[in-house]
What we know:
By secondary structure, this protein is mostly beta strands. It has two domains: 7-274 and 337-474, Methylamine Dehydrogenase, Chain H, CATH 2.130.10; 283-332, EF-hand (Recoverin, domain 1, Orthogonal Bundle), CATH 1.10.238. It is 9% helix and 35% strand. It is built from five helices and 33 strands. The protein has helices at residues 7-19, 283-290, 312-315, 325-336, 353-356, and strands at 54-59, 68-69, 73-80, 83-90, 96-102, 122-124, 127-132, 136-140, 146-151, 166-168, 171-176, 183-188, 194-199, 211-213, 221-226, 229-233, 240-245, 256-258, 261-266, 340-345, 350-351, 357-361, 372-374, 377-381, 386-390, 397-402, 415-417, 420-424, 429-434, 440-446, 456-458, 461-465, 469-474. The protein has a five-stranded mixed beta sheet with strand order 14-15-16-17-21. A four-stranded antiparallel beta sheet has the order 1-33-32-31, with no helix packed on it. Strands 2-3-4-5 form a four-stranded antiparallel beta sheet, with no helix packed on it. A hairpin with a 5-residue loop joins strand 29 (429-434) and strand 30. The chain is globular, with a radius of gyration of 22 Å.
Amino acid sequence: MTSRSSPRAVLACAVLCCCLTATAADWNRFRGPNGSGVAETTGLSLAFGPDTNVVWKTTVPSGYSSPVLSDDSVFLTAVEDDKLYTFCLSRKTGEVLWKRECPRTRTEKLDRRNHPAAATPALDGDNLVVFFGDFGLISYDLDGKERWRRLLGPFNNSYGVGASPIIVDDLVILVCDQRTDSFIIALDKSTGEARWQRPRTDAVSGHSTPVVYQVAGDAKKILAPGSFRMDAYSPETGESEWWVYGLPSEMKSVPIINGDTVYVAGYNVLINDAGQQVTVPPFTQALGDYDADGNGKLSRDEMPKGRLRQLVGFSDRNRDGGLDADEWRIYAGAHAAENGLRAIKLGGKGDTTTTSLQWKYPRSIPQLPSPLLYQGVLYMVNDGGILTMLHPKSGEVIKQMRLRGAVDHYYASPVAADGKVFFVSQAGAVTVLRAGDDPEILSVNELNEESYATPAIADGRVYIRTASTLYCFGKDL
């Protein structure tokens, strides 16, 4: 055995160390430390329910945002009497310490799977940042004093916006992908002043919350998946330093970083499954074949019946009823894209599409839940409750199974700690799986109420939000 490390191992260690520096007790953004969904804690309960192993439970108004944690408090957003609120609760008792109303300047149309309080807050030191699609960004200190506000929108995402803000050093970063005029923006964490804003010209839909990575000797990068491509932005300038194509036209899940690799899952519609794609002719040819009224655009009714009609409405960015040449480009790309979980090598300059893909897995891909990498196994649960476990280096399937006793729809992302992986179904069934190559379902716990929020984990406790309640399960602090 030698003590010499390979350059690749050193690079992997450097990137990994950067990504895991936030693994303290606090769960301070969507899915915790750098969006990983992994906490460093022990003593988590296997059995819990409305009256089992409850440290405290607090009635909270409706919302899909996930709880985030400081040393003493839990923060989340909600809608009560059609008003937007940020709540602060005591981590020790669950008592509501304060709530603050956010102005509601509009009421945007949302998909049934979305919610006006869907984005999870971001927390850094004494700075709390929340985002509402019906207003924009607001920052508070931990006592609830407003520090600044930034009006954004209105937005024109088909489903309503859903990405959560993150904090990178002294910046608040928010991705707003929509039908037209998609952008990523960086605001000064202390003042709310815009530092930079960059268009995301290919993005037409999606809710993916970005993550951060850093190679030793280089500056941090913000990884932001979007329609058809993922970009690595400089926090200092907002420039995209490298990017990779091949993603579906809608991205919702958070990318997961391990060493010099990022894992990103994307699913749009069934016709984007491997082998199901439809060949779309060039625009000029399609005009000759299908443009019955001769207006130089292609409407849904002009397309032949079948799968070629399916994405016309999605690609009609200006909603004038017909696709022009640029919209046809989006339409063709949406048909050609392939659902899948991809392992992509980090780094490079410019377009790295042809060199960065390490492997791709195309089946049972989740539309909303993000993947999870824990103790050497890559987990993903799709919307129908099919769990797939893969080797992160090769993409080889370890096991695929349904979550027995919890066959349901899944919107929350899995999280892990203490050798256990937690899955929360829409109906409020919480499955606890023993982590590792030989998985075992340790328990299925019924909360008897719908749940869309991703749990938070810290200090031997699991925080789970249902339609009307925030639970704290585990041991006393």
